[in-house]
Amino acid sequence: MKLYFAPHACSLAPHIVLRELRLPFELIRVDNHSKRTAEGGDFRDINPKGYVAALRLENGEVLTEGPAILQYLADLRPQAGLAPANGSWQRLRLQEMLNFISAELHAGSAPLFQSDLPEAARAMFQARLGKRLDWLDRVLRERDYLLGDAFSVADAYLYTVLGWLPRFAIDLAGWPRLRAFHARVDGRDAVRQALRAEADSAPV
Ligand SMILES: N[C@@H](CCC(=O)N[C@@H](CS)C(=O)NCC(=O)O)C(=O)O
Fold first, then answer.
1. CATH classification of the domain holding 94
2. Which of 64, 67, 168, 186 is placed for a possible disulfide with 98 were both Cys, Cβ 3.0 to 4.6 Å?
3. In whole angstroms, what is the distance from residue 22 CA to residue 202 CA?
4. What pLDDT was estimated at residue 23?
5. What distance in angstroms lies between residue 142's CA and the mean position of ligand 1's atoms?
6. Nearest CA owner, ligand 1 atom 18
7. What residues make up the domain containing 18?
8. What pLDDT, in 10s, does the model give residues 40-86?
């Protein structure tokens, strides 16, 4: 398997999960501006949508979209418990959470990466993000991880997105349970290894 990634982008979530599951994989860096890959090709030949993450399987199939990749990986090693069984009610709870992170946090924060975003729009997106974080902070009142007491692929995704907040001048101090969650996940071996590998990867 090959994971196409850009450092600190949303591809960090499947990267963490690959390491949590101890699956064999190759990490291929992508320059998100030039769209060149470390293999020397044009990334749009791998994912015509032009964005990471993309997972190339041994059979040549390329899977894109974070929530789909995360569930595919978890199902390769169901005994690791990173996703509830397909068809179960709890699996729907996972999908509910992945969609929330994808649509409300990930897509909701994307405009804030633009330095030329008008101030009024920036304030509006920040306020909306704040409401979503309020809800998550309440969810974490009763549990250490999004689905309960155990780490799941949704936690890898949430950890990744929370890591962007300082760039938007959003301080997790305002959401103490989210801050504790971030610190908890940050200490996992797979997370430390993934961050180190991304930092050590050569620019394309
Ligand atoms: N819907 C996609 C969004 C992926 C996405 O936003 N990727 C960003 C990095 S976090 C990217 O590669 N952006 C570069 C671009 O759009 O040109 C998913 O959930 O996987």
1. 1.20.1050.10
2. 67
3. 23
4. 98
5. 31
6. 65
7. 2-80+190-200
8. 999 999 999 999 999 999 999 999 999 999 999 999 999 999 999 99
Going from the Cα of 10 to the center of ligand 1, the distance in angstroms, rounded, reads 7
AA identity, residue 176: P
Q: How much is the pLDDT for 36?
A: 98
Measured in angstroms, how far is the CA atom of residue 56 from the centroid of ligand 1? Answer: 16
| CATH number of the domain bearing residue 71 | 3.40.30.10
pLDDT of residue 182: 98
Q: Report residues whose beta carbon is within 6 angstroms of any ligand 1 atom.
A: 6, 9-10, 32, 50-53, 65-66, 102
Ligand 1 closest atom vs CA 51: 12
The answer on 129 and 44 residing in a single domain is: no
Whose Cα sits closest to atom 16 in ligand 1?
Answer: 51
Residues 177-197 pLDDT 10s: 999 999 999 999 999 999 999
203 neighbors 166 (Cβ within 8 angstroms): no
